[in-house]
Amino acid sequence: MKRVVVPAGLFLLVLLASSTSFALGREFVSEAGRFSVVTPLTLNETSQTVDTKAGKILLYLFGGEQGDIACFVAYADYPETYVQSNDPETLLDGGRDGAVRNVKGTLVKEIKIKLDGYPGRELLVNGTTADGKDFTVKQRMFLVKNRLYQVITVTPKGDTSRPELDEFLNSLKLLSK
Question: Which residues pair with 154 in a beta bridge?
Fold first, then answer.
């Protein structure tokens, strides 16, 4: 569970040099992922296999960047038996630890949250790129049955109070099968 987070290299795609303004609210729907979000950016899909304590897991990632901002939504399905044999809070702890480790960051804040009754976490993580630019990751993750959803923003350090990014982070909706 600890390694199913957006890889650090994807966060480092963001250019942390200039200020950018966005239009609020374009809906993005993933029927296969069974979710929707309202995003200020165009999201492009990629996938990769990652090694976890539960074995190899396919991570689906939808991401976009503009100027000094990046937005991501990711999901991964764990084996049901793995999730059933572990405490959800312990699995989310592993997701948190992996998120911090993958960006070589420092956990600044963590809040336990819920989405439609499912357990989750909101994280604030500070880090520095290889070329010395400080950034902040604000992330929400939710364990929905055996699927881990993540909604992530990356901004220049401390720049976390943009309405369009709050709307994005708060907009995750689960779709029916």
Answer: 70, 137
